[in-house]
Structure formats: C-alpha cells, structure tokens
Amino acid sequence: MRLSTTSDVWWKNAVIYCLDVETYADGNGDGIGDFRGLAQHVDHLDRLGVTCIWLMPFFPSPDRDDGYDITDFYNIDPRLGTLGDFVEFMRVAADRGIKVIADLVVNHTSDEHPWFKDARSSKDSTYRDWYIWSDKPEPDDPSGVVFPDEEDSLWEFDEGSGQYYYHRFYRFQPDLNTANPEVRDEIARILGFWMELGLSGFRVDAVPFLVEDMGGDSEEGDGKLPDVHTFLRETRAFMKRRNGGAMLLGEVNLPYPDLRKYFGDDLGDEVTMCFDFIGMQRMYLSLAREDASPLAEALRERPAPPKDCHWATFVRNHDELTLDKLTDDERQEVFDAFGPDKDMQVYGRGLRRRLPPMLDGDMRRIKMVYSLLFSLPGTPVMFYGEEIGMGENLSLKGREAVRTPMQWTPHRNAGFSTADSLPVPLVEGRFGPKNVNVSAQRRDPDSLLTWISTLVERYRETPELAWGDYQVLDSGTPAVLAHRADIDGETMVVLHNFSGQDVTCEVLIEGLDEDEVLTDLLIEGTVKVPSDGRTRFDMAPYGCRWLRASSPEEAPADSADIADTQSPD
Asked: Is residue 205 flagged as an active site residue?
C-alpha cells in the first residue's frame, strides 16, 4: 500500500496508548503524576512506536471516580498542572509525531459541578433542565445499574428540590440531559475548545448511555429527544468541520449486530472506531481453554466496519476486564483459570487483574497474546504498563487495582516520584518495580518491552494487517488460530498456537503466485507454498508466526543471505 493512503486515515494502523496522567510520572515531587512528568517521558512512547496517546480524564474533579466525576470541562485538575503545562506536553508529543486524544465524558458531571449546584438550588434554575428530574423515580432495571456492588438504583432523591435526579453511574454523577439543545451546544463548545489546543479526537465514554429519554420535566423530554445516533452524527460532523482528520473512539459494549449501528451502519458517519469487546472476551475464553475456536468464531461473526471506520482491539483497558458477553458457564471458566479468588473479581462480571499475573508470568503465553493484539484486524490499543508486564495491586478498591503508578526503575518509588510517600501504592512482590520496570527491560533483548517494540515495528511495516480484507483459515487443529489479510496484491498469513504443546498444522493458502514464498517476520526463514496450497507449519508451544508473501528476490534478508554477501569470491 502507498504510505500516503495510510497516512490520510491515520487511525487505521495507529498504535494507541492509554494512560492516566495522575499515575504516569510525577514532575514536581508531590507524589502525583502531572503533565510536566508526562512530557519528560514522551520519548519512551516514541521509542516504543506509539502514534497516539489517549489521556484519561485530567479535568478538575473531586476524584471520587478517578477523575470521571468532572467539575470543569474547560480546565486542568490543579494537581496535574496548568493549561500551560498541558500545551507544553502537546508540543512535545507533536514534535515526536504523536497525536493525542482524550476522554470525552459528557454522560454526566460531578454533583459538585457549578451546573448541578445551580440546578438543584431551584426548580426555576437556569441549569435545571440540564439534568434529568422526576417527581417519582421510574422503575429500575437491575441490569441497567452499572456498579451493582455500590448502587441499587438509577435515581437519587434531592432533598433541596424535592425531586429525584437520574444517574446511570454513581449517585454523585448526575446525568446530563442531552435532550436539551443548550446541553448539546455546550458539548460542542467543549470539543472545540480542546481541539483548538491540539487534540486529534476523543474516546467517548459509555456511548450507548449518551442519550437517555427518561421523560421528566424537560420540554423535549417526550418524543423530541434526538436519539444517540443523531447525537453522534452531529458530533462527528462538528469535529470534521474543525479538523478533517479528527476521530471518535467509542466504548460500545454491545453484540455485533447492535454495535455496528454506532459506526453509522454503511455510512460510517458516527463513531470512527469501536472497541471489539466481543473479540476480547472470546480471546480470554480461548486462553482459558487453550483452544482458539472461541476467538475464531468471534472473528468470523464480526461485521466489516464501514469504509474509513475501524475496530479497536485490546487485551485489557483501564476498567475492569469485563466478561459480560460470555455465558455464565463460559465466564466461570475464565474466572476459574485467571481469577479464582472473589477478591480478583468485580461486579460479578469481570476481573480486576492484569494479564501477566493471570498467566502466572509465563512469558511465552504473554508474548503470544501481544502478538495477537498487533496482528488481528483492527487498531491495537494498549494500557500503560502493558509494555513491561505490570501487575495489579489487589489491596486497592475495585478497578483502581490496575491503575497503579508506572514502574520506571527498580529504585525508590519506582522512579515515578521523588516524594516521601505516594497517595496510590505501588504493585508489590513478583510484579513490583524491583522485577518489572522500564529501565531494566530497555537493556534486555529478551524482555517484553523489546518484544512489543518489535511487534509495533512489524505492525507498522505491514499495513495489510490493518487495512486488508481478512479471512479466518482452517488450521486443522483447535489449538491454532490462522488468519490472512489481503490488499492490493499483498498477503499476510498469521498463526498463533494457544496450547502449551508442539503442534503441526496444515493451512490451505490459495491465490499466491507460483514463485512466491512466505517469509517469517518474527523469526528467520521462508516457507514455500506447495502447488496445491496445503502448507504445513510447525508451531512451538504458545508460538506465533507472521508470514508475508513475496517473491524470493523481495523477501527480507536473513542471516544466511548476509553471510553469502560477506563471503570471499
């Protein structure tokens, strides 16, 4: 493919890296991460090959929900720095060619936001209709409570005004009333403000809950509420007017047929990319069974996104590792394999663990999973610390177990801060900073950091993985997932062995020219495809192979070729 084509739609083969400024790097020694500290570590992301940084919420907040309870959409949390510090960070990222997106959290505000304080002061308040009110709470749907361990209703009584307000999430996060055109206009201003400061897009939190018609006192509460798809189309159109290359990354955890609607169906005029929650959950079921079939089935079911839209693939995100789309029995299989203790589980539907402890530190399996991440069709999204194999701290509450300070060195405070103490404790034990840190792994050719850097490099060299038409192939054995990607006459064949056993598989590879060979991009060697296309591959336990079709003259050089060129005449 022409690189000019891939650059136009940059998100299709981007490498996205999610981080929390508060826990990434402390630049002023107060124990809290900030934009000054982050700016000094952008080169780590540049060396890794990251092309887009996704910032978790950095706005002023009481911090009762890790920054998702916002009190000012137009400023920086003072603990994290100033708008000037933010602009300096953006300049450093731009200098390295790295784009930046941020969380767009407009489902709700904090109950300490000035809008809500004003709204609850009187039924005649200017901001009263910016929220959703009712004299009597509507019947609760238990399945609609997002945090069932802490909330048992979607409505909270406000004693001051004598009405109930709606909250899809925590009771201290009242939902905004997007039926109100003034609210929608304000959301557009928020988008425009941060785009003017350099953001290239937004990750949209809880997309299906952006617009909820609960009736109440709103003049537009009955029958006039724009549906979520209209809202997304308007948002995307506004962003394109401001910046034609801007993107929306949507958190849409729905079955595939329902999810595709959030792309805008065939028009592709709503969310630019959607996370593949189904594929992620099936991947963990495949890991638990050492059987690739569940993931293969998901990839076959997954619909093709509209043109210029894409799937976002991930191993885990900043929330719980949700397993809600598995059956009860399947979810229990994953719990038994990777989180058997109740303390490792959360909300009855997910795990609050990171991958390396779940796999007991088995580097073969860990490396295989990240090979999957970068070779499956979609844009890979990483959560900070994944590149070095960080673990979790189960002494912390809920999802905070995986949001611990970044581990830069084996020394004091993991190189995160010079403070005497940290508000958020570090991971301890086997996956703590003495054993897992950036400094040591940067010097180790066999480290996870080196492996992921290599995968990023290979992924960026092979745009057919992200852009091509993909097909799941029959490997002849349940343990091996085989798929191919084709575009503009270029072909990649990728295989992963989910089992701890040596496996020989046979894959039918059709349509290649007679003289073409498959060159492995991860290890040395080429594979000749027989005339009938039935090609045998030997797979090591938890092995992975990335094979690119080319003529022998165009195949990448290996050590034997180099030796030939250096031999005397």
From this structure: yes
